[in-house]
Structure formats: C-alpha cells, structure tokens
Amino acid sequence: MDNDQVSEEKPICSAKGCRVDAVWVLAWNNPKxxxxxxxxxxxxxxxxxxxxxxxLGVRGFLKDVVPLSExxxxxxx
Length: 77
Hints:
Radius of gyration: 12 Å
Order of helices and strands: EEHE
Shape: globular
Number of helices: 1
Helix content: 10-25%
Protein name: Acetone carboxylase
Number of strands: 3
Strand order of the largest sheet: 2-1-3
Distance between the termini: 24 Å
Largest sheet: 3 strands, antiparallel
Strand content: 15-25%
C-alpha cells in the first residue's frame, strides 16, 4: 500500500491482510526512484510497526516513524 496522503477516512495498517486501525506513519523513499526530499508513507498498527520498519530499514528506505496523530505531510513546493 502506498499512501502519499493520509486520508480523512479511518486509516488502516498497510501490512498485508491487516485491517486494524493505523497508529503509526512510516515515512520512506527509494533513493533510486525518488528525490531525497520525497516521502512515501506506509501506515502501521502497533503489532506491525516493527516488522514494516525492519522491511524498509534493511533496504535503506526508512526515513522516519511518527505517531499518526502527529504526522504532518511535508509541504511540496
């Protein structure tokens, strides 16, 4: 799942098959595809936060993990 914007609807975890409410935003980018300031996002529940973070981290993609309640989409300009 790839959410460039957090929806106003109830966000759910991006883990495959998970339908639990998301509480974390994992901001990432693939440096081979995206400019350094670009941030793609995955959403995570408490149970899947570590797994998704590790998945992105071992690839060097993970840039930040923040609570969904504190997430502000970086301004693009």
